[in-house]
Amino acid sequence: MEIRQLEYFVAVAEERSFTRAAAKLHVAQPGVSTQIRQLERELKQKLLDRTGRTVLLTEVGAAVLPYARAALAAVAGVRQAVDEHTGLLRGRVSVGMVTSSASAYDLPRLLADFHREHPAIEITLSESTSDHLLSALREGRFDAVAISPSTTVPPGVETLTVADEPLVAAVSPDHPLAGRDRLRLADLRDEPLIIFHQSVGARATVEDACAEAGFPPRIAFEASDPNLLAELAAKGLGVAILPAPFAAIRPTTLRGIPLTDPPMRGSIAFAWRENGSANPAANALIRHLQRAMRGGDE
Q1: Transmembrane residues, as ranges (predicted)?
Q2: Structural domain contains residue 19
Q3: Can you tell me the distance from the alpha carbon of 188 to that of 262, in angstroms, rounded to the nearest whole number?
């Protein structure tokens, strides 16, 4: 049994595709298939069900997967121990983020700073919903994720809030509501709303508040990018509900009006496994995020 075979098996199990696994590993697909067949012959058991369009784990494969991951983590730890003695930290970290969250806390800058500190560490970044990100985090497919805290955080996961802003009603300067100092959510009952897509945590916040106020939101436009929501509102296409800073940076084209009864907030938090990771590179990233978000007091 070779480490390479276990690496290929884990990649196919996670990607549910030989093609995607080969692309992720930067190797040819036939080589992936050959190595996994050799592993199955050695174990005398099928690990993958190849009969459908999506590759699935067999019952044996599902039982083997956590041990394969643990073996790869152990090998990474051995390599890391050597690198630490030579002063070089290397490896791979996988970061996930909920759609639209990056602009709330300047994720590109955080990752660029980390890359300058640890140029030998490979960083990958993917987008998804908060629920999916948390599930993948617990399974070890992500090392750190940025989520909406409105999602229920499962046991064993630690979080750090990195953005928390009031949601405002944003309208064009010539909109009938532009002269108001504040608005109740019920005031927007009949207004065409421009709100986040369902993949963004703030969408659930708005929908829940509307339900409590006794009306379904009249959704005219939805998008994951808050800048797009702001631009649509600035063109007079409706009332955008978005974090206050995205209205404040457009003082000539957009008026942000505080929302009361109820006030709403949009938040983003980083999350990671509470007991740390077997991957030293991932632990370095988590420490970097903690220092950056807490002002360097870690």
Answers
A1: none
A2: yes
A3: 12
What are the pLDDT digits (tens) for 217-233? Answer: 999 999 888 889 999 99
Q: Which residues of the chain have pLDDT under 50?
A: 296-298
The domain total for the chain is 2
| CATH classification of the domain holding 55 | 1.10.10.10
- Residue 198 has which token pair? 């369902």
Alpha-carbon gap, residue 130 to 266, rounded angstroms: 14
* C-alpha dist (Å) from residue 75 to 2, 4, 69, 156: 11, 11, 10, 24
Would you state the pLDDT for residue 85?
59
Q: Are 106 and 163 in contact (CB under 8 A)?
A: no
Task: State the pTM of this model.
Answer: 0.61
Q: What's the pLDDT score for residue 83?
A: 67
Inter-residue contact 76 to 68 (CB < 8 Å): no
Q: What is the DSSP letter of 187?
A: G
Nearest to 167 by CA among 137, 111, 206: 206
- Residue 50 amino acid letter: R
Contact 266, 165 (CB under 8 A): yes
Tokens of 18: 């030989």
